[in-house]
Design brief:
By secondary structure, this protein is mainly β. Helix content is about 10%, strand content about 40%.
Length: about 290
Amino acid sequence: MLQHNEEIKQLGAGKSGKNGKLKIILGIDLSSGRTRIKEKESAFPLSVQKEIYYDQFLPNMTHVYMVSSSGGILQGDKYAIDVTLEKDALAHITTQGATRIYGMNVSNAIQVVNVTLDDGAYLEFIPDQIIPYKDSRFYQEISFKVHDNATMIYSEIVSPGRIGMGEIFDYDICYLRSTGKNHKGELRFTDYTKIEPKKMNLQSFGLLGQKQITATMYILAKTKDVETIIKTLENQIKNSSEIEIGWSTMTKENGVLLRILGSATRDVIRLVYDITKIVRKIILDSDFHEIRKT
């Protein structure tokens, strides 16, 4: 990524609107029992909408939409997102739409995400897919700090580009790094995905084969819950001609890492929702409803 740190002749890195920032702290409101946004801080173009409560089975769970007013990430952009859930907070966080990485003639785009969950907290962090446009370069680094008694689901879907425009794997690089630790700072997992379509034969065996959509899910939970999650996945989730999936446990069997390959974004999103539904039922004994985006 460092080779693309050239000077930008347009609106340079560090200028107003290039360094997006969003920080939110969610905690339980004692008067209502609901999880609320207790603190928030943002810098253009990132912001967050007011909490929404529409789950009849989990009326105290808050649904939060992260919003970018720029419509996408441009060359030289640097975004920082910090999310904290306090003790026993319940939240579902998503984005208002796909994360679009626009084409670049110099530099790159960087996004850093930090997520912290306290004792007993539960978070579903399900953003829409990443769409790297032609000639784009994107680096994302995510750090999770999840209490051993908390549960977090995070998904990351990467499309091959603007399929409708005929852009299939025309971007330069999409480099995604993730690290998970518990509240004591003990390592739970490290993972990275680096896709350089112009340097790799992505359709070869051992990479994507004939699939175009890639996705990763991280489920961090108690060891006893992980055992139940894996058994349920084995019984209910199967590979097909359209979807291939595999999973493994984390270092101390206190989490599950899942990798998904699909032919269509809608199929991958459906599977992500199905897996989220399984985890929510096991952890919260509640049904899961698809998130409304319209």
